[in-house]
UniProtKB/TrEMBL annotation:
The modification 4-aspartylphosphate is found at residue 100. Residues 355-488 form the GGDEF domain. Residues 184-254 form the PAS domain. Residues 51-165 form the Response regulatory domain. Gene3D superfamilies: 3.30.70.270, 3.40.50.2300, EAL domain, PAS domain. Keywords: Phosphoprotein. The lineage of its organism: Bacteria, Pseudomonadati, Pseudomonadota, Betaproteobacteria, Nitrosomonadales. Pfam families: EAL, GGDEF, PAS, Response_reg. This is GGDEF domain-containing response regulator. Residues 1-10 have a biased composition (Basic residues). Residues 497-751 form the EAL domain. It comes from Parasulfuritortus cantonensis. Coiled coil: none annotated. SUPFAM superfamilies: CheY-like (SSF52172), EAL domain-like (SSF141868), Nucleotide cyclase (SSF55073), PYP-like sensor domain (PAS domain) (SSF55785).
Length: 757
């Protein structure tokens, strides 16, 4: 009976060594990690045949037992000594050992002790002819699974081995499951701790009982600073009411609060953030947020689990986008859309209260000259000064807006009468007339102001703005630097426009149009490698006007093609004259109007001008805007392809400001991309990142196109472009637009320097 009890005894299995609970990803099994992340699966392992080791010094016994177990698909090896058994255990993994105690060279317990000392994972059944109970007890104490006395019945021996192996498999599977669970917990902790989100749990009273380490970088608090503290210590005071609704959330599933925005306070003001909080209260079968009352069968709320994602940067970007939709980027004044909204509202109030209001349009005289001669950066600084000076004349109810490049609008809803409006306009002219120091230059500025009063000059926004514009043009035609209130005797806007159109026709007839050229420079050596032809209007009254004053009027009166022919002819003639003087062979860039490109004989006109002046086609570069490409892309592509085949080079001007599509870049036979000055202006430091500029350069390089940076006014802009792969530079930093004779002098000086080198 004692021996049977010993044989049936199954020792208690150890749970194994407790593992250190770390969140180190290096300790996570890659197979398990892949399974948990959806990249693999943990499948049950196929069970291989059990491997047995028979240790007995009787050859007959070894032979008979080998035959017995081989019939039942066991892999069995046999040895005849204890030393041989020890060697095999060190060399090979076995599932079970059948061990005789009385061996020729050592006692069987010595073999057991060796296996135990080495931590070898196998079960041992002692099969011995020793009838002493002490031998059985000693074997079990050394870790033997069971004890059978020789001669054992085959069925009894097979049953013992089968039961032992079943226990072995179960134990090993349990260990694998524990390992997987431990790995899973480490992975979960790692993901929680490394999450970019602030993850936390609250108890029933709203006190933190867990926060991940993200709270330290987001809000500046250590974990121990928050554990046990109420959530209100983090919530912005204005958001506490919403926080009570969200953070005391007890609902589960789809009814729980999601994507609710809260402002959380950091340890210092710099640590404050906006958060989008996803709160879920979980049931017991998930995270134990609810506990189950065994007697009453009721669930008890035990806490809240939440994830807070920092959306501060997104909120800033959205606020900036919303601001720029209604405000001017340069002056930060309301734009045209916001001004009209306020004007409509003010008119409603004016009619209701039967009170007057005034609208003024303020146009800066000769502002284009500032832009063209001193650069756009100085021009922007001047606009900001103008905005500040005008704002200093206003009260809190007035609205000052920037409508256009040099045009401002003023709404004064509480003006008492026309005399007060004129006094305000006079005061504005006075502050604008004071000298202004911008960009190291002293600038003297004047302005023209048109005034319209409601209800006398119009009772709706459109009519008031139109009449204020009529008064403005009346002032400008009368010599500028003055103000006037609208009067019915003034010519209306269409008459003013008609006069401008007539002036342009006269300018074409009298030869008032001229070409200026802005050099394009290789920043590697400072050499001029090309020029861009720019049309100017030598106006007898207003002085030099830019193309922006010419082509809009030309489009209205059908002069675009005539002016484009003249521009192309003059540019080719000047280039021929430079070549005839032996000056450097450079490229001539000419801007092409969409209307000119639409002409059926456009290709013939261009090639005729090139041939007429004996120029190499590749010396002419036609610049088109992105808008041309989408007017009629098939027609444009066909014409431009014919020119490219003849050798004429093609460029996209102001790239990135219009319909920037890779599709048309591949359809058109382009050679050059020009980076618009609006993007170049964003470069303030030659070591900063300007993703749009860098992306355009990389795109051009990838398409095998030359890239030109225009509007370059500062050294750091040139250095940035050169370092990023754009070495052709156009801008005031090197040269301003100048007449053909001045460009010829520059080229001659360049040739002389080259000879001296």
């Amino acid at each position: 009976m004692a021996q049977r009890r010993l044989r049936n005894r199954i020792p208690h299995l150890s749970a194994g060594t407790e593992r250190d609970d770390m969140s180190d990803p290096a300790q996570i099994d890659p197979t398990l990690l892949g399974a948990l992340l959806g990249q693999g699966s943990v499948t049950p392992m196929a069970v291989p045949p059990a491997r047995l080791l028979l240790v007995d010094d009787e050859p007959v016994m070894r032979h008979s037992l080998q035959r017995l177990f081989a019939k039942h698909d066991y892999l069995i090896e046999s040895v005849g000594s204890g030393q041989a058994a020890i060697e095999r255990l060190d060399q090979q993994q076995f599932d079970l050992m059948l061990l005789d105690l009385h061996l020729a060279d050592m006692h069987g317990l010595d073999v057991l002790r060796h296996a135990k000392r080495r931590g070898i994972d196998l079960l041992t059944i002692v099969v011995s002819g020793d009838n002493e109970i002490d031998s059985a007890i000693g074997a079990l104490r050394q870790g033997a699974y069971g004890f059978l006395r020789k001669p054992a019945e085959p069925d009894e021996l097979l049953a013992g081995v089968t039961n032992a192996l079943a226990l072995q498999r179960e134990r090993r599977e349990n260990e694998r499951m524990r390992d997987r669970l431990a790995q899973s917990e480490r992975l979960y902790r790692y993901l929680v701790e490394q999450s970019p989100d602030f993850i936390y749990t609250l108890d029933q009273e709203g006190r933190f009982n867990f926060v991940n380490q993200r709270v330290e970088s987001l809000l500046g608090y250590r974990r121990e600073d928050l554990i046990g503290k109420h959530y209100s210590v983090l919530v912005h005071p204005e958001d506490l009411a919403r926080a009570r609704h969200v953070l005391d959330e007890r609902r589960t599933g789809d009814r729980a609060s999601r994507n609710v925005e809260l402002r959380l306070r950091g340890r210092t003001p710099e640590d404050s953030h906006h958060f989008e909080v996803n709160l879920v209260t979980l049931s017991v079968n998930a995270f134990g947020v609810y506990s189950q009352d065994g007697e009453a069968g009721q669930r008890e709320f035990v806490g809240t689990y939440g994830i807070a994602r920092d959306i501060s940067e997104r909120r800033k970007a959205e606020a900036m986008a919303a601001f720029h939709a209604l405000y001017d980027r340069v002056t930060e004044l309301p734009n045209r859309e916001l001004f009209h909204d306020r004007l409509e509202f003010a008119l409603i109030q004016s009619r209701r209260q039967r009170a007057p209001l005034a609208v003024m349009l303020i146009d800066l005289d000769r502002f284009k000259w500032v832009n063209d001669s001193l650069g756009h950066l100085v021009g922007d600084d001047l606009l900001r000064v103008v905005a500040q000076r005008i704002a200093g004349c206003l009260d809190g109810s007035d609205t000052l807006a920037r409508l256009d490049a040099d045009e401002f609008a003023l709404l004064s809803p509480h003006i008492p009468d026309a005399a007060a409006a004129k006094a305000l306009a006079k005061r504005i002219l006075g502050v604008l007339g004071a000298p202004c120091e911008v960009g190291g230059h002293e600038v003297f500025l004047t302005a023209s102001i048109g005034i319209a009063m409601s209800p006398e000059d119009g009772n709706d926004a459109q009519k008031l703005m139109r009449n204020a514009d009529v008064a403005l043009h009346y002032v400008k035609q009368g010599g500028k630097n003055n103000y006037a209130r609208y009067a019915s005797r003034m010519p209306d806007l269409s008459s003013v426009k008609h006069g401008q159109q007539a002036e342009l026709r006269r300018a074409v007839r009298k030869g008032e149009l001229v070409l200026y050229y802005q050099p394009q420079v290789d920043a590697n050596n400072g050499d001029i490698v090309g020029v861009e032809a720019l049309m100017r209007w030598q106006h007898p009254r207003d002085g030099l006007r830019g193309a922006g004053d010419i082509f809009p009027l030309a489009e209205e009166i059908g002069l675009v093609c005539q002016l484009s022919d003249w521009l192309l002819e003059t540019a080719c003639a000047d280039l021929r004259a430079w070549l005839d003087r032996g000056l450097a062979r450079i490229s001539m860039a000419v801007n092409i109007s969409p209307h000119y490109l639409d002409q059926d004989d456009f290709v013939e006109r261009v090639l005729a001008a090139v041939t007429r002046h004996g120029l190499a086609p590749e010396s002419l570069k036609l610049e088109i805007t992105e808008g041309i490409a989408i007017r009629n892309v098939d027609d444009a592509a066909g014409k431009l392809s014919r020119l490219a085949a003849a050798g004429v080079r093609l460029a996209i001007d102001d790239f990135g400001t219009g319909y920037s599509s890779l599709a048309y870049l591949q359809m058109l036979p382009l050679h050059t991309l020009k980076i618009d000055k609006a993007f170049v202006n964003e470069i303030h430091d030659d070591s900063q990142r300007v993703p749009v500029v860098q992306a355009i350069i990389a795109l051009a390089r990838g398409l095998g196109l030359e890239v030109v940076g225009e509007g370059v006014e500062r050294e750091e802009q040139a250095r940035f472009l050169l370092r990023n792969g754009c070495h052709i530079i156009q801008g005031f930093l090197y040269h301003r637009p100048q007449p053909a004779a001045a460009v010829a002098a520059l080229l001659a000086a360049q040739a002389h320097q080259a000879q001296q080198a």
